Amino acid sequence: MRTTPANFPSMLTRMLLRAMALIIVAVTLCPDDAAALPTFARQTGQNCQACHAGGQFPELTPYGRLFKLTGYTIGERTLPFAGMAVVSDSSVSNRSKSDDPKEDFQKNNSLIFATGSVFAAGKITDNLGAFLQVTYDNYASQSADGQFHGHTNADNMDIRYADRSIDNSHDWIWGVSANSNPSVSDVWNTAAAWMQYVPVPSPTSSSFIDGSAPYPGFAAGSNIAGVTAYAFWNQTLYLEAGGYRSASGVASFMSAGIADADKTKLQGTNPYWRAALSHEWGPNSIMVGTSGMVADIYDDPLDTSDPTTIHHFRNIGVDSQYQYLLDPHTVTVQFAYTRDNQRIPAFLANQPVQDANGNPLPNTNSTDTTNVFRAKASYIYEAKYGTSLGFFNQTGTTDSALYDPTRVYGNISGNPAVRGWTSEVFWTPVQNVRIGLQFTAYDKYNGASHNYDGSGRNASDNNSLFFYVWGAY
Amino acid sequence: MYKVRVTMLALMASLATGCANEPRSRDTANPNVSGETLALQVCSNCHGATGNSTSPQFPNLAAQQEAYIVAQLGAFKAHSRQDPPGPEYMWGLSRSLTEKQIQELASHFAAQKPERQLVEGRPERIEAGKAIFTGGIPDKGIPPCASCHGPEGKGNATFPRLAGQHVDYLVKQLAGFQRTNDRPSATLMKTVAHDLSHENIVNVADYLQAMPNHQER
């Protein structure tokens, strides 16, 4: 890995000055009594850290997990709205190896209002509760004249009906969730929908590299519509199963605001499952689990007439999480691994490809496998000062379909490998404001450590620094 | 699509009827939900269904004195007990509880059987703690804890049960009595704790958590 480039220190100073200004604004604007999802905190009257480990959202404590599994119904009904906003600034290590740095590294080193979300969330009846997130991305698209355009669309949605039978000798929680994203219904932070650095830089909203570190996930992605049924027995065994379809008809609100061309279009009902074993002793809790999904996705979301254009995916994951929670310490260790097998539709498989010089490459594959591994450890003191270190490693089959000689973005090896580390320090001055600095170092990018784009760009040239201020009310 | 539609309809229907499910409600503001139900559906999440909590973050309530529980819930509700976990965890949950619910919650937990706790302290610490509990520290004018909390640490009325309580919770309370006025009802304890050293506090807490309590009802 390269040493830190010379422009980083000056950039750090600038970021710190901006941070100070922002903190003052944030602290004066936001009173102390709100929480990670402030509407839930108002409903139970509790602090965020009752439900979020050390106050680091979205990671749930054992109590937060039970709150969610019992359908967000603990407490009293209150006005169920909350808002959240992220202001950020990011910087890529090396901008010289590019033909058009202005174009390739848009918004690099400038403070932007990245995203905002509105939530409608909370208890509806004794058995029914909801978590509905609508997100605004200030830099969602860019028109031909280079202007960015903001866009609002449906984000994570989870409406659930839950019941619980409990006495001194047994405890059964069960329920049904209608949701927009496989595993968004899950309560452990290593589930695909939740295991992320929050806020994560969004690739469209700042420089290109941010947010391109891989996460385990399901090929079907979000903004689809599913129903899952789950049960949690004696706070030990968790089982969930269900199916997902394209979000249409009554469920179309789950993909509201997403252009038809950007929606995932699924064929039929696609199964999702989850099993987890959980155990608590003293201040410790551990979970070991597995999840999976089989999905048939149309190649072109605008044309779902031809079943021979379907990509068939099989995703299987294993994940584990350990937490130690005892004031003033919060420790979390997480692992997640998913394997993705894809059968490529016949019209895209076995196609001839030529490299930039016109030499033939092997024909494209008819099947691909990708593996993503992630590990993360974090420590938070007094729910205020936090630090974490994460490792990611994506490996997979080399496929000429990935060959792309574009400078900066390209991939000349045809291999999807990405590997690196993310470290973070953050500070939570009041429970609904968090200020953080993340550094991501790549030692493999688009298949190679050196010259991955064929024009001399190395993985470490993409190392990036990301600064954010997150607030919720 | 059919399945999704049916579920959505079911959800809408139950939303429309607003059906309260009192025997299994987690609504802390509905006076018709019994204390017993709240104890199992809500309090159990942290304190355990039988008042034996897994995490030391949450005090054990099993066999705690009924009058003491009533008094503490009142203190959380009135915001007079303000050691940090109080506002963070208990103020909100207790804000709408009725007197009747508080009474029922107290009798539920008072009637539970305490589980035997792990013995975590070293034997010499536990011995030293026992000496403080049964004999006080005469040099410093500290009375025996047993004189108020009972020879077996079971408490009496508003003198709380201490036997089998988590070390971490006990240490935090004693340090709090010493340094703060976060628990204004604890005037007696403020005097008692004033001259305890940190060492004394850990010793007595180790002894209390280890106090044999498995034979009791």
In spatial order, strands of the major sheet of chain A run: 1-2-3-4-5-6-7-8-9-10-11-14-15-16-17-18
Structural class of chain B: mainly alpha
CATH class of chain A: Mainly Beta
Q: Percent of residues of chain A in helical segments?
A: under 10%
CATH domain class name of the largest domain in chain B:
Mainly Alpha
Share in β-strands of chain A: 35-45%
* Weakly predicted, low-confidence segments of chain A: 1-9, 15-36, 203-207
Give the H and E element order of chain B. Answer: HHHHHHHHHH
In sequence order, what are the helices and strands of chain A, one letter per element? HHHHEHEEEEEEEEEEEEEEEEE
Radius of gyration of chain B: 20 Å
**What would you give as the CATH superfamily of the largest domain in chain B?**
Cytochrome c-like domain
Description:
The complex is a heterodimer of chains A (473) and B (217). With 473 residues, chain A is mainly β. Chain A has a single domain, classed as Beta Barrel (Porin), CATH 2.40.160. In chain A, 10% of the residues lie in helices and 45% in strands. In chain A, the strands form 2 sheets. A 16-stranded antiparallel beta barrel of chain A has the order 1-2-3-4-5-6-7-8-9-10-11-14-15-16-17-18. A two-stranded antiparallel ribbon of chain A has the order 12-13. In chain A, strand 3 and strand 4 (148-166) form a beta hairpin. Chain A is globular, with a radius of gyration of 22 Å. The model of chain A is unreliable at 1-9, 15-36 and 203-207 (pLDDT under 50). Chain B is mainly α and 217 residues long. Chain B folds into 2 domains: 33-114, Cytochrome Bc1 Complex, Chain D, domain 2; 123-215, Cytochrome c-like domain (Cytochrome Bc1 Complex, Chain D, domain 2). Chain B is 52% helix and 0% strand. Chain B has 10 helices and no strands. In chain B, helix 3 (66-77) crosses helix 4 and helix 8 (167-179) packs across helix 9 (187-193). The longest helix of chain B is centred in the first third of the chain and has 16 residues, at 2-17. The N and C termini of chain B lie far apart (55 Å).
